Amino acid sequence: MRSNPHTNGIMEDAQARLAELPSELLEVLEEMLEQPLDDLEGLIEKVVSYRVEVGEMFGVNAEFADEELAAMLAARTVELLERVATDYDEEGHRLAQAAANYLVSSDDVDDDLSSPIGFDDDKEIFNSVVEALGHDDLAIL
Fold first, then answer.
1. CA distances from 17 to 13, 97, 103, 116 (A)
2. Is 47 in contact with 73 (CB distance < 8 Å)?
């Protein structure tokens, strides 16, 4: 992982875990880590709204997408954001925000709704972030 002023304070093992991501995912994550910090409550609302929006699309435009994984990602992303809000530190906020923004992004590596593996890249980002932050219990297997 290249040096990033927003992640320099993260423990070396966290940097190593994020560096294990495929290069195309790492590149997108690094761009998201550079974004200004958003309000955590606003991020939670964004994830919940995305889940509702995506839920309405299942069976209509997303017959092959993994609805169960989408629901689990949204729920656990909200839980991660709530944990960060409770035990706040800027690095945790930045990483959790990147995971949330990746989930709700229509411009991620795999289009979420177009295939059965559309949410797999979101899961990989999410798992890397929760493991980097020491919230392994939120990881999605």
1. 6, 17, 19, 26
2. no
Contacts of 42 (CB under 8 A, 6+ apart): none
Other Cβ atoms less than 10 A from the Cβ of 60: the count is 8
Domains in the chain, number: 1
Residue 4: inside a domain: no
Identify which of 67, 89, 71, 90 has the alpha carbon closest to the alpha carbon of residue 79: 71
- Whether residue 73 is contained in a domain is answered as yes
pLDDT in tens, the chain (141 residues): 444 444 444 446 567 778 888 888 888 888 888 999 999 999 999 999 999 888 777 655 555 667 889 899 999 999 999 999 998 888 899 999 999 999 998 667 667 666 777 888 999 999 999 999 999 999 999
Burial classification of residue 22, based on how many CB atoms lie within 10 Å of its CB (0-12 exposed, 13-18 middle, 19 or more buried): exposed
